[in-house]
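Q: What structure does this chain adopt?
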Amino acid sequence: MRPLQNTGCPPRRHARPTWSERLYVEIAPERMALFRFLLEARGHLAYFTVLDRRRALVRVVFSPDMAAELEQGLSEMAESVPFSIIRTPHDGPVTSTPKRP
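A:
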């Protein structure tokens, strides 16, 4: 195995976060693939997990030190894919709508 080479990048001056930030997005189900593509095209600023596929409710997880970049990316993405951000308090879990039998 080859040793890692120095890329010449300066070391980070701040500690890496030990937790992730999240926000919730509701999008039309037929636009979910495009939303994922556009999010990944932004250098993997965040990833998302589908909480409710019928409602197309997703949880977007990102590093807190990338919040400004994600906000800018989402505002640019909103021009191509309409979605709404659901604001929730961070003091408790958010769950998807219960599945009906």
